[in-house]
Batch of 3 targets.
Target 1
Amino acid sequence: MSEQHRSQNRRPRKGKKPAKGGAQNGSGPPQPRDPARRVAYDVLRAVDQRDAYANLLLPALLNERGMSGRDAALATELTYGTLRLQGTYDAVLEACVDRTLASVDTEVLPLLRLGAHQLLSTKVPPHAAVSATVNLARKVVGHHRSRFVNAVLRRVSARNLQEWTEIVAPERERDPSGHLSVVHSHPRWIVKELARALGERSGGGLPGTEQLLRAHNERPRVTLVAKPGRSTVADLTASGAKEGRYSPFAAHLDEGDPAALREVRQNRAAVQDEASQLVALALSRVDPHGQDDRWLDMCAGPGGKAGLLASLAGRRGAHLLAAELQPARAGLVATAVHRAPRDAGRVVAADGTAPPWRPGVFDRVLVDAPCTGLGALRRRPESRWRRTPQSAEELAPLQHDLLVNAVEAVRPGGVAAYVTCSPHVDETDAVVRGVLSERGDLTLLRAADFLDEVPDLAAGPDGMYAQFWPHVHGTDAMFLALLRRKEQ
Ligand SMILES: C[S@@+](CC[C@H](N)C(=O)[O-])C[C@H]1O[C@@H](n2cnc3c(N)ncnc32)[C@H](O)[C@@H]1O
C-alpha cells in the first residue's frame, strides 16, 4: 500500500513532463492526472448521492477508463478504505469544520472523507495527501471550494487517527456502543444489534462485538466455490488459489481478479463465501427420511446457493427447482445452474409467498430470505449507512411468509433450511420461533450437527441454530436453522 501511494505521489522524471490537464498516451480521451483519486471520488459521490453500489460501480469505472494494475489497486483501496471508516472520518471532520457536516456540499464531503482517509489510515505523506486531494477538489468543485477542502484537511492532519478518536469518541466505560460506533465506524444501532446477536451486554465492555466490528473493516479475501462435478479445489489451487478453511468446495484468492481463472470463466467455479457454501451443504446432509428427488430453492437470485445445490442434487440423481421473484435475477440463476451434472437445475420466476408449485412435494427446501445483509458488511461497506433501525422490522413479515411457504412446500419427513445473511435476532430467531409457535408439525434440528467440521457454530436457544461470524470463522455472518416436517 505505502509503495503504491508513494509511487503515485512521486514527481515525474525529468524529460517526462505529463501533458497539461492530464497524461496522454497518444490516443483516446485525455486521462486525469491522478486517475485513482478521481475514480475513488466519483464512486464515493455516486454512493452518497444516488445510492450506487461500490462493488458494481468501481469495476465498471475502472474498465471504462482503461485502468488496471497499480492505479486500479490504489483506486480500490481509496474507495473501500474511505467507505469502511466513513463514520470515524465523519466524527473527525465534524470537529474540523466550523459548521455541521450535514451542511457541507454533497460534492465536497466525499473529498473531505477521501483526504481524511489518506491522512489517517495510509502512509501517504500528509503534504502529498492534502495537495493531491486539493488538486482534485480544484478540478471537481472549483478553486473557491478547494480552499475550504485545504483548510479542513490541514486541521485533520494535525493529529493521527488514535489521537483523533481519543478526542471525538465517547469514553468506552461510559458509553461502550457509542465508543465502538465511532472507533470502528458503524452506526450505533448496528453495534447494539450485533452485540445482542452475540449475547453481549454493555456492562461487559462488548469485547466480542469489537472483534466483529474490526473484522468488518478488514478487506475480505475472495472465496471461490468449485462446483461439484464440474471442477475441484485442486483445479483452483493449481490456478493459484489456496484451499478453503472448512468447505470441501472452497478456495481463496488473496488478490487478483477471479475472472482470470479459467474455471470461473467457464462457470465450473464461482465466487461464493464459504458460509454460503456450508449452509447449502448442511441442507444436503440432512437425512430426508425417504425419497430424495425433489429439491427447491425458494429465493434463488442471483444463484450462488442454487448453483451449488444443483450440482449436489445432480450428483445424487435429484433435481433442483430454483425460484426467484425478479425475472432479471432469475436469468442470473439460470446461468448459475447451467450445465449442472445431469442437467439437474430448473429455474422459474415465481413469488415464494404465492407459489405455483403444489404443497408438500419437496424433499429439501432452502429459503435464503431477503434480509438486511448485516452479515455481509465486510463486502458491502456502504450498506451499513443505508440500513435503518426499522429495516429488520420491515422485512420480518416477508421472512415469516416465506418460511411458512417453505415448510408448506416440504413433504412430511422432509426438511427446510431457513437462511439469512444477517445475524440480527429479529430476522433469525424471532422468525423461526414465530413459525414454530404457530405450527405443531415442525421439529427444529440441531443445525451445527450437520457441519461438524466448523467449530463454535451452535447459537440461539439450546444451541439449535448455526451462526457463522466473520471474526470467528472468517466468513459472512450467515444464519441457518433446519426444520423437519413431522411425519404423521
Ligand atoms: C438473500 S437473496 C438470495 C441469495 C441466493 N440464495 C444466493 O445464494 O445467491 C434473496 C432473494 O430473494 C428474492 N425474493 C424476494 N422476495 C421474494 C419472493 N417473495 N419470492 C421469491 N424470491 C424472492 C430476492 O429478489 C433475492 O434475489
Target 2
Amino acid sequence: MSTTVETAGSSVIVAIDGPSGTGKSSTSKAVAAKLGLSYLDTGAQYRAITWWMLNNGVDVGDPVEIAHAAARPVIVSGTDPTAPTITVDGEDASGPIRTQEVTSKVSAVSAVPEVRALITRLQRSIAADATGGIVVEGRDIGTTVLPDADLKIFLTASPEARAARRSGEVKGSDLAATREALIKRDAADSGRATSPLAKADDAIEVDTTELTLHQVIECVVTLVEEKRVPA
Ligand SMILES: Nc1ncnc2c1ncn2[C@@H]1O[C@H](COP(=O)(O)OP(=O)(O)O)[C@@H](O)[C@H]1O
Ligand SMILES: Nc1ccn([C@H]2C[C@H](O)[C@@H](COP(=O)(O)OP(=O)(O)O)O2)c(=O)n1
C-alpha cells in the first residue's frame, strides 16, 4: 500500500513527534495558525477511542477485546488550528478525553495493532484532504503515518521540564507523581511492537528544555518556510 499523500501548490506536510509535555500541541497549533495550515492532534484520536472503550464496557486490559471493538466508534477530527475539535459518534469528546482515567489507559489501547491500523488510515485520509497543507502531531507520524512528510520535527525536553509543564496545567497536582506517570507512559509508548514512539532518521530534533514556547514556534515556522514548495 502506498503511504504517499499527494500535495499541490505551496502546501506542505509537517510531522511533529515526541513524548508528552515537549510542546507538540502548543507548537503545532501555533505554527499551523500562523502559516494557514490545517492541524491534526493524533493523540486526541487515540484518547477518543480509549474514552469510547471505557464507556462501552470494553475491558481495556484485554487486547483481543480492544481489537474486536476498534472499528465501532466513529471518530471525527476538526482540523482548524484555532478551534480543533474531536467527536465520537457525533458527541463532543474534547473534555472527557483529557481525564486522568483516559490518560492512564491510552497507552494500552493505542498499542493494539488493529487500533493503530484504523487510526493510521483515518490520519492519512485527513492529511490527503488537507490540500493547503497540514501539521500533524503525535508519536509515529514521521516514521509510520506520513513517512514522506516534507518536514519532520522530533521535540524533546528533560523529564523534569515536561513534568513541570504538565503539572502546571493541573491545579494541586503532585510534581513527582506527574514525572513518574510521564516516564511510565514514555516507556510504554516507546516499547510497543507496532509503530512505537521514535524519531525518524530524517527528523530534526529540537530540545525544548531551555527554550520558551515562543522560541520553539519561531524555530519551527522558520523550518517550515524553508521547506515550503513554491506554488
Ligand atoms: N518550551 C516551553 N516552555 C514552557 N512551557 C511550554 C513549552 N512548550 C509547551 N509548554 C507548555 O507545556 C504544556 C504542555 O505542552 P503541550 O503542547 O500540550 O505538549 P505535548 O503536546 O507535547 O504533550 C502546556 O501547558 C504548554 O503551554
Ligand atoms: N501518533 C500517536 C499519538 C498518540 N499516541 C498515544 C500514546 C500517547 O501516550 C497517547 C496520548 O497522546 P497525547 O499526544 O494526547 O499525549 P500528551 O498530550 O502528549 O500527554 O496516545 C500514539 O500511540 N500515537
Target 3
Amino acid sequence: MPFSLFKKVKKQKNPHPNCLCVFFFLLFIPLNLTISMAMLSLPSIQVCCLAEKRHKDSSTNSLKFKESNSRTTNYRKGSFHQERKPQKVNLEISPHRAVSAVRLMRIEFGGAFADLLNEKGKGSGDNEMGYVERTLGFCTRDLDDRDLRLVTDIVGGTIRWRKYLDYLILSLCHDPHVFDRMEPLLLQILRIGFYEIVKLESPSYAVVDENVKLAKIALRPGAGNMVNGIMRKLVLLKETNSLPSPQLEGDDRAQARALATLYSHPVWMVRRWTKYLGREEAVKLMVWNNNHPSFSLRANRGKGFTRSELVSRLETLKVPYELSPHLDDFVRISIGMQSVIQDGLLKEGLCSVQDESAGLVVSVVDPQPGDTIIDCCAAPGGKTLFMAACLNGKGMVTAIDINKGRLRILKETAKLQQLDDVITTVHDDLRTFPENNHEAYEKVLLDAPCSGLGVLSKRADLRWNRKSEDMEELKSLQDELLDAASMLVKPGGVLVYSTCSIDPEENEERVASFLLRHPEYNIDSVERYVSPEFLTEQGYYFSSPVKHSLDGAFAARLIRNS
Ligand SMILES: C[S@@+](CC[C@H](N)C(=O)[O-])C[C@H]1O[C@@H](n2cnc3c(N)ncnc32)[C@H](O)[C@@H]1O
C-alpha cells in the first residue's frame, strides 16, 4: 500500500509539505516501513549501476573490508527481490559520511524528498546500507544515534547551502570545465566537505582526510587527489579569512544574483522577496530558511491524550520542550524527535507533528462540537484531524481530496487517532464536486495547493524544485478552487481560504480577486480567533517566519451574505 501511496505523493508536481510530513510519519507503522523505504530506491537505479561500475574500477584499492552475511534488498530491471549476498563492510569510512553522500545523490538525482530522509528515518537502517552498498560499492557499520544526527545536519545543510557551496567549489577549481564536468558523487563529497568546514566549522584537516578517503574508495585514487587539492585550498583561504565572496554591486539584477549566492536561494525568489518585503526582510527570511528547523507536536485530544500527558512523556524521555503560547494542545521541540518516534508517541496516534502556523488556521475555522465542516483540499489531513479532534465526538468533518493515495493516508491516520467516527472522506475533484453535491455547510475550509514558500526551512530541497513559472499555474488553480469551494457555503456560513505561502499573490491578491467575482462574500476579521500579533490590517491571519519564528501561513475568513 505505501508503495503506491509514495508513488502518488512523488508524482504530484507540488507535493504539499504537510502532505509529506503525514505521509512520512505513516511510514513508521512497522508493516509499511520496509516497502516504503525500498520504494525510495526506485529512481536511483542508474546511480547504482554507475556506482557498481565505479566500484569495480576502484576494487584494486587495499581496503579494510569485513565480509558479513546480512540480508539486503536488491533491485533488478524493475522488480524488487530479497536475496542473501555477502556485504563488503568498510570500517575506514565513517558511516555518517557515506550515508550523507548517498542520500544527497538520491535527493538530487533519484527524486527522493529531503524530509523523507532525515533523522526520523531510524529503523530503516538495513535499507539505508543497501543504498550505500549499491551506490558506493561497499557498506559501513550501522548508524548510531549520533551518526543519524550528523547525517540530518549534513544532508539538510548541504542541500540548503548548495548554491553557495558550488560557488566556492567553482572558485577553487583551476578551470571552470573541471567543475562543469565533475562526476555527481565527487561533487557531493566536495559539497559535504565544504559545508562541514565553512558552515559547521568542523576540524578542517580531519574533514579533508575523511573526504579524500571516501573519494578514493568510492571512486578512484585520482578523485581522492582532486578532493585533497581543492579542499586544502579551501582550508588555507578559511584560515586566512579570505574566502571568495560575491560582491553586492551593480544593478538590481546583479545584486539579487549576489544575494542569491551568499544566502543560497534561487535568484527569482530573492527578486520576489526584495520586491515584496524589502532587502532587509528578504535577507532575514533567507537566514531563517537556512537555519535548522524546529518542530511542534500536537497532543491528540481525540484519543483523550492531553498536553500535560505529552509533557510528562517528553520529560521522561528527557526531550527539552516549550509550551506553545498560541495553542493549548501544542508543544515545541527543537531536538529529540528521534526519541519521540522511538517511544511510539506518533505510531500510537497520541500526538501529531504539526506546525503552530497550521494549527492557527484551524483556530480561524473555529470548529465546535456539533459542527458539520467540509475540508476541500484535505489530504493528508493535518487540519482535518485537528478540526475533528475539536468536535469532541459530535459533528462531522467531510474531507475531500483529488489524490486517492493521500486520502487513504488521511483515513488510516483518522483510524489510528480514533477520529474516524467524525471524519468522512470523499475522493473527488473539488472543481466538479459542487455540481453533484447539493449539501451546503456552515464552515468550509479551502487549504489550497500553493508554492510552500512559507515552509522552506522545513523543506530543505523545495527551494531548488520550485520554479517561478509555477506561480502563475498555482494562482489560476487557487482561483478555480476558491470558486468551487464558495458554492458549498450556506448563507451566513464561513469560507476560510488558507495557504502555507508568504507570497501576497497567492494570499491577499487571491482573496481580493475572489471578492470581485463574488460580491455575496465579505471579509470577517480573524481578530476573535488569533492573537493580535497574527492579525493583518485587512483582517487576515498571517504568520511570518521572520516575525513569529513559525512557518509562514495565511488565512482569510469570508462570510457568505446570501
Ligand atoms: C495544501 S495541501 C492540503 C494539506 C492539508 N489541508 C493538510 O493540512 O494536511 C493541498 C491538497 O489539495 C489537493 N488538491 C489539489 N487539487 C485539488 C482538486 N482539484 N480537488 C481536490 N483536491 C485537490 C492536493 O491533492 C493536496 O492534497
